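Support request from a user on the community tier.

User writes: "When I paste my structure tokens into the form, the page sometimes reloads and wipes my input. The last time it worked, I copied everything first. Here is what I submitted, just in case something in the input itself triggers the reload:"
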């Protein structure tokens, strides 16, 4: 019962099926429409057997939930225990019959459940329109997939609502044709009832299968007006479908792989994006900027459309983003075309129309290929209007089908292409007349509208902005007329010459006669032309009018005969947006003025004239620039570069007005003496001197300018007023205002010479030479800056005052005979005169070493003859070098003892051994004359020969001439000094002479002059004071300059040590080298200081004795004969950190000396010392050390500490032998280890301890491992291991077995403190075994306590017998912290296990009250149970009865236990009992181990 919800009628013979149907009613059942099915068995129904019966029932049309929970099964007349029907039978939820289900959403139902009837739902419901275009026919496709079978028998009707806005009229009889298409069957045409408000009703004719797509398709007409789509809904009659279902998009807004086209393009549909696919969507039409444009081109397409005053051809390309259908009645306007003078008209002819396109104007008859033009008006200035007509076809896709045009749309994807989304494109051309003035490129608007029955739609306009920058193709862009460049050249830059001017005027537009152009050429200054017309020559551009007028400044030229030829354009300069260049060329002639001038700022201004009065300055259009266009370049075809007489212009490269560049017009060249050479033949004072001159000018000197030369600044020369000239060109000149040739005029007060030119023209670039005589001055002078200039008409007005070039040739034969041996280049320079002087004045010394005997050598050569009473003074011996550079100086010493000072008195002069060896004259073939000069001087007037007088207070030596000092002869002599023991700078002696009374026009003197410091290096010999193998210390440049004494320097000082280990004996090695010998007699000493290491930047003393006078000094290295320069012992001051050693023998400069000595390293680490070296009692500066190389970069092997620890290391074969260890026993090297007094800080790098037993009351071997970074044995450490408290080991001696790197050593007796847990021993008992990075183990035995505990934390203290050594509180690592395993904690030192019975079982033999009961016990412990510590108590045996006292026990372990600790009888226990508070007996059994029970 309960099979409700069917439409199957009652039937007592309802056919049944199934495997068991034959067992019931012969295959029939009694069916009651109320929902009851009665099966009558015809065979016995067996227990535990399965039976299957099938029955067909018809579902109702409306949905229904399953009746599985209300179905009952009962068997009559039998009853079940409760007497009720059996309910809640199970229902199959699988897919036994293959019913379609929605697997895509994860919300499957269970269609096989009994009498479950689905509600109609759409698995898929979408809609699509075939066209989004205005005025187009769009096919609507609705796709529906139901979740049930929709049978025609149910008469379903599908209603689609919401398709609003179409222009398709209502039609429900006969209706619209609709194509119905199912998944299995082809399309079938039916009729739908269409209502224009947007509803379509279709009676379906075919079965729609569940899960299969079905389509309904019909056509509608799109309006012209754009619209978005509204949501369409679907509903079905006769089925449960409570709410209309919205139709989705067939094409979702996906992200296709083609970023531009997308999936819609792939599918071949004309959509911009998915929104356009929906029925009812109509795209907004607009002008497409990317493929639309308006440009101007003239008939030659050469971009001259931008010129004023000419017809302008405008081409329009108009494109829309939709096809244009005839039914839309498209109309267009193009506005913003300002700048035209074409009058408004309704019938402007258009050309070049796209094939197939028909354009008409607005007239009623629609004139073909004519459009409306409005020149001005409100919001309509420069506007075209036209209509698009075509009587044969729609205007769809009028563009190249093979070309994709980017529509640039904003909706959907960023770009769409015209070929797949719909478009229209057409073009035409019309002509407008341009105005005279320029016009900024306007913004042109392209727009239109379309119309259909339901309304009209504006075609979204596009404003075509001007190009940036403006381009000649921009519609109605008119160039503002401009003179863009002016090029101009002249024929001659010479003063007073005839000058032809050629001019090129470049404009940015072509010139037309109608515009009446005029050029004004301004700033034509510097001519001799009078006001009036100037003839215009037109050799090239004959269209130039040729009339002109000149007002002294401006030349006005008419240009109006004809239009400028198009050939005048320079096309090579056009680059699309740049200006074209149009040239206008003509020439005229002027006469240059006399004055020089720079090219004036000539500018050209241009005008378009309103009328034609000559040379009017105001017109319709004033060209740019308003200030005029300057001349910036030479004319393209310059005039011939020549004078008025036809002579070629000289190209003066120095002024840059050469022919190749053509100087700007009216540049008048400055008259320049290009070549003005002058020389002499005698530089001695007061001598007769012949002056030679050569002149050359840069232009022809035109006679009308009356030219003359002036040679000025002939300083110091003397001559009469009339000067005779001689030489090749003397006849070209006369005196001033005279006619006699080969003469000149001398003006003494101005010291200058005038030479007037005869009537013969002086030509450019031609040399003119002549000579004249003057007398030299008696005093010295350098050659004056002699100058020459050209004057016109006796006026200095056009010439640069040119500096003449002195003769600087090296021709010694060109001077007089007496000057030749001493000829210097420059002696031929005019009026160069030597002062009375010493040509040669040198001084040198023989030794630069401190304390050495030094010979001074002096050489003098005079150019003036000297006799008594002349005196020569050499001064400057007391000059202080501090005043010349701040260098410390030392006092000079007299020959003899170093303590002597300079006296005042005579000083002996001695011969110079080299005085008769005259040096070779390398300047001229004329050789010098040389002699010894010590005997021509005295120490006073008429004094002692071969003496000089020295004045100590003034630091000068007076040498009185006793005989004759002949000019030109080289005199040499010497005297001696002893150098100071310290270095000093050289002195700079001076020499002068006075009281010179012979051979001069007036008394003369030789001024004080610095003596030349004669570097006679080749005459110096330093052996044996210097080690000759060190060439840098041998004679060098500068060593011979007077009283220069080398500063003593320690050239090198190197130090190294032998070891950086604490407590070690350290050998210090020292090497040094000096720049000068160390003098033993000065009681010199070597002092090594700074022998202290550093801790935290603070110097600390070394170990060992505080003072020692017997530190052994061991010398090595150097030459054999230079050893033993030091005493064999030195003085050591530990607190001061110094070692002092005496010098016992003079050293050699440059020799490297090496010595060593031993110090004792401290026990603590420290950084390197700052070691320094001094040599006392001489002036050696202190020297900082450098590190002495040991051949290994300063690295010491084996003193650099140890690598990191590894996890385990096995010293035996078993697991219990695992120990922590370093990764390597080999010590690392110590970088920079040789740095003196560096000591490595001792430290323990590995500390580890473990034990062998964790059992209470049991002995355990403890092994403590220590590894250090240094050899601790050298510091004799005492070792204390702490933390061994709470053991059962009493205080006393404990034997410790050292194990070094796995090798056992002799045992050590250590003191153990007992409960406080300290174990102390002296390492010296073990000997020298505590090496760096060794694994040093200390093995000893203690006894664990009986109570459990965790491992102890051990520390180690080390205190050395060497002062200051200690390493305190070194934490010892434990296994549990180092090793990651479960048993590691058991190896922790003194860790004691918690005792427990791992097995504890107990049983009995009788449960009966009062009966004898044998209790069996099984125990297993995790620790040893020693007799001395352990007892076992078994308690909790409530009410168990037994006599108090010993009790026999039995079993295989009975002999392991006894009743008490001292009982001799084994196999017994002690029974005890007590009564608790409740009165119950609580019995217990105590067992003591007989010996030790193993775990």
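"...and here is what came back when it finally went through:"
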């Amino acid at each position: 019962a309960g099979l409700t919800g069917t439409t199957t009628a009652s039937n007592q013979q309802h056919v049944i099926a199934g495997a068991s149907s034959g067992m019931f009613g012969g295959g029939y059942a009694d069916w009651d429409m109320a929902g009851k099915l009665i099966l009558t068995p015809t065979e016995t129904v067996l227990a535990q057997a399965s039976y299957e019966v099938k029955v067909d029932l018809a579902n109702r049309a409306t949905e229904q939930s399953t009746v599985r929970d209300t179905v009952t099964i009962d068997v009559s007349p039998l009853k079940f225990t409760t007497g009720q029907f059996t309910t809640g039978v199970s229902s199959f939820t699988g897919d036994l019959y293959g019913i379609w289900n929605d697997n895509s959403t994860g919300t499957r139902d269970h269609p096989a459940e009994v009498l479950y009837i689905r509600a109609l739902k759409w698995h898929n419901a979408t809609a699509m329109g075939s066209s989004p275009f205005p005025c187009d026919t769009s096919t609507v496709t609705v796709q529906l997939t139901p979740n049930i079978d929709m049978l025609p028998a149910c008469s379903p009707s599908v209603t689609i609502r919401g398709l609003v806005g179409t222009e398709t009229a209502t039609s429900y009889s006969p209706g619209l044709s609709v194509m119905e298409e199912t998944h299995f069957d082809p399309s079938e045409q039916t009729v739908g009832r269409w209502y224009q408000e947007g509803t379509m009703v279709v009676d379906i004719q075919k079965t729609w299968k569940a899960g299969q797509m079905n389509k309904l398709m019909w056509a509608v007409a799109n309006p012209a007006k754009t619209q978005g789509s509204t949501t369409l809904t679907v509903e079905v009659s006769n089925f449960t479908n409570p709410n209309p279902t919205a139709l989705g998009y067939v094409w979702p807004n996906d992200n296709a792989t083609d970023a531009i086209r997308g999936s819609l393009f792939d599918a071949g549909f004309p959509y911009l994006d998915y929104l356009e696919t929906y029925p009812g969507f109509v795209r907004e039409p607009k002008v497409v900027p990317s493929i639309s444009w308006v440009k101007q081109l003239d008939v030659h397409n050469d971009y001259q459309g931008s010129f004023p005053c000419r017809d302008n051809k405008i081409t329009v390309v108009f494109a829309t983003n939709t096809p244009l259908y005839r039914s839309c009645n498209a109309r267009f306007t193009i506005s913003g075309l300002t700048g035209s003078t074409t009058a408004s008209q309704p019938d402007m002819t258009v050309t070049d129309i796209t094939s197939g396109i028909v354009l008409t104007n607005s007239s009623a008859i629609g004139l073909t290929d004519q459009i409306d033009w409005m020149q001005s008006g409100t919001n309509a200035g420069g506007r075209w209007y036209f209509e698009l007509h075509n009587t044969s076809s729609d205007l769809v896709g009028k563009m190249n089908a093979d070309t994709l045009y980017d529509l640039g749309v904003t909706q959907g994807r960023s770009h769409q292409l015209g070929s797949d989304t719909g478009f229209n494109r057409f073009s035409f051309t019309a002509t407008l007349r341009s105005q005279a003035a320029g016009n900024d490129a306007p913004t042109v608007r392209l727009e239109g509208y379309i119309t259909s029955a339901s309304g009209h739609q504006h075609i979204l306009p596009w404003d075509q902005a001007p190009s940036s920058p403006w381009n000649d193709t921009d519609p109605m862009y008119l160039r503002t007329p401009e003179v863009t460049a002016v090029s101009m050249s002249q024929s001659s830059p010479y003063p007073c010459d005839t000058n032809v001017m050629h001019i090129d005027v470049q404009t940015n537009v072509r010139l037309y006669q109608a515009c009446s152009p005029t050029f004004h050429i301004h700033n034509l200054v510097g001519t001799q032309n009078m006001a009036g017309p100037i003839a215009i020559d037109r050799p090239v551009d004959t269209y130039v009018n040729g009339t002109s007028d000149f007002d002294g400044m401006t030349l006005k030229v008419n240009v109006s005969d004809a239009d400028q030829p198009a050939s005048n354009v320079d096309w090579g300069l056009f680059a699309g947006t740049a200006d074209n260049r149009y040239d206008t060329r003509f020439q005229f002639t002027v006469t240059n003025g006399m004055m020089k001038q720079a090219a004036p700022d000539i500018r050209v201004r241009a005008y378009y004239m309103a009328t034609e009065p000559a040379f009017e300055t105001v017109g319709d259009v004033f060209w740019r620039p308003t200030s005029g266009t300057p001349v910036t370049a030479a004319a393209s075809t310059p005039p011939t570069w020549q004078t008025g007489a036809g002579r070629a212009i000289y190209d003066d490269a120095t002024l840059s007005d050469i022919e190749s560049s053509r100087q700007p017009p009216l540049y008048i060249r400055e008259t320049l003496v290009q070549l003005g050479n002058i020389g002499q033949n005698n530089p001695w004072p007061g001598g007769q001197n012949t002056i030679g001159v050569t002149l050359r000018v840069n232009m022809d000197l035109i006679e009308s300018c009356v030219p003359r030369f002036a040679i000025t600044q002939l300083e110091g020369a003397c001559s009469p007023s009339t000067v005779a000239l001689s030489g090749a060109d003397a006849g070209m000149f006369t005196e001033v205002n005279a006619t006699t040739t080969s003469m000149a005029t001398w003006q003494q007060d101005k010291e200058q010479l005038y030479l007037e030119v005869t009537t013969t023209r002086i030509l450019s670039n031609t040399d003119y030479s002549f000579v004249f005589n003057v007398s030299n001055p008696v005093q010295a002078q350098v050659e004056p800056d002699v100058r020459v200039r050209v004057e016109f008409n006796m006026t200095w007005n056009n010439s640069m005052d040119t500096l003449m070039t002195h003769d600087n040739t090296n021709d010694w034969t060109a001077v007089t005979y007496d000057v030749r041996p001493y000829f210097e280049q420059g002696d031929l320079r005019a009026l160069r005169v030597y002062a009375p002087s010493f040509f040669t004045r040198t001084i040198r010394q023989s030794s630069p070493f401190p304390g050495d005997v030094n010979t001074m050598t002096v050489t003098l050569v005079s150019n003036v003859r000297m006799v008594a009473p002349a005196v020569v003074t050499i001064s400057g011996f007391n000059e202080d070098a501090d005043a010349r550079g701040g260098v410390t100086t030392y006092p000079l010493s007299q020959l003899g003892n170093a303590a002597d000072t300079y006296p005042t008195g005579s000083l002996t002069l001695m011969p110079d051994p080299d005085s008769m060896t005259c040096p070779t004259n390398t300047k001229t073939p004329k050789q010098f004359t040389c002699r010894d000069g010590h005997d021509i001087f005295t120490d006073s007037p008429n004094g002692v020969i071969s003496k000089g007088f020295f004045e100590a207070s003034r630091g000068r030596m007076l040498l009185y001439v006793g005989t004759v000092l002949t000019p030109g002869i080289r005199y040499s002599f010497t005297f001696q000094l002893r150098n100071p023991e310290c270095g000093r700078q050289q002195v700079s002696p001076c020499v002068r002479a006075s009281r010179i009374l012979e051979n001069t026009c007036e008394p003369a003197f030789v001024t004080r002059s610095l003596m030349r410091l004669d570097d006679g290096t080749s005459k110096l010999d330093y052996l044996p004071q210097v080690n000759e193998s060190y060439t840098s210390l041998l004679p060098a440049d500068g060593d011979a300059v007077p009283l220069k004494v080398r500063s003593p320097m320690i050239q090198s000082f190197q130090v190294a040590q032998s070891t950086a280990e604490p407590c070690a004996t350290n050998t210090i090695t020292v090497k040094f080298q000096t720049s000068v010998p160390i003098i033993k007699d000065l009681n010199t000493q070597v002092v090594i200081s700074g022998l202290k290491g550093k801790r935290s930047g603070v110097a600390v003393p070394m170990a060992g004795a505080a003072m020692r006078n017997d530190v052994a000094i061991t010398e090595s290295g150097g030459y054999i004969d230079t050893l033993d320069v030091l005493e064999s012992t030195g003085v050591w001051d530990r607190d001061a950190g110094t070692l002092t050693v005496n010098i016992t023998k003079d050293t050699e400069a440059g020799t490297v000396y090496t010595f060593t000595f031993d110090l004792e390293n401290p026990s603590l680490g420290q950084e390197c010392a700052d070691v320094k070296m001094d040599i006392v009692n001489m002036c050696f500066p202190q020297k900082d050390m450098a590190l002495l190389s040991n051949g290994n970069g300063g690295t010491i092997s084996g003193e650099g500490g140890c690598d990191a620890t590894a996890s385990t290391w096995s010293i035996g074969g078993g697991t219990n032998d695992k120990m922590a260890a370093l990764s390597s026993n080999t010590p690392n090297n110590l970088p920079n280890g040789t740095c003196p007094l560096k000591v490595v800080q001792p430290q323990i790098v590995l500390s580890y301890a473990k034990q062998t037993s964790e059992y209470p009351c049991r002995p355990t071997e403890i092994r403590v491992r220590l590894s250090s970074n240094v050899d601790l044995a050298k510091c004799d450490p005492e070792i204390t291991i702490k933390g061994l408290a709470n053991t059962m080991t009493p205080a006393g001696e404990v034997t410790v077995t050292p194990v070094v790197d796995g090798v056992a050593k002799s045992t050590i007796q250590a003191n153990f403190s007992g409960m406080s847990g300290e174990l102390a021993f002296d390492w010296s008992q073990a000997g020298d075994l505590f090496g760096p990075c060794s694994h040093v183990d200390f093995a000893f035995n203690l006894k664990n306590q009986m109570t459990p505990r965790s491992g102890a934390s051990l520390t180690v203290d080390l205190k050395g017998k060497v002062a200051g050594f200690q390493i305190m509180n070194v934490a010892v690592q434990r296994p549990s912290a180092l090793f990651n395993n479960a048993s590691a904690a058991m190896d922790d030192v003194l860790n004691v296990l918690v005792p427990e019975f791992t097995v504890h079982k107990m049983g009995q033999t009788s449960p009966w009250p009062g009966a004898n009961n044998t209790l069996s016990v099984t125990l297993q412990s995790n620790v040893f149970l020693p007799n001395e510590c352990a007892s076992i108590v078994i308690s909790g045996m409530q009410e168990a009865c037994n006599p108090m006292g010993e009790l026999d026990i039995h079993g295989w372990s009975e002999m392991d236990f006894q009743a008490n600790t001292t009982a001799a009888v084994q196999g017994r226990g002690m029974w005890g009992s007590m009564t608790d508070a409740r009165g119950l007996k609580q019995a217990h059994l105590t067992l003591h181990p007989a010996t030790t029970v193993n775990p």
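Agent notes: The reload is a front-end session timeout and is unrelated to the input. Helices lie at 262-266, 418-421, 1375-1378. The chain has a mean pLDDT of 84. Escalated to web team.
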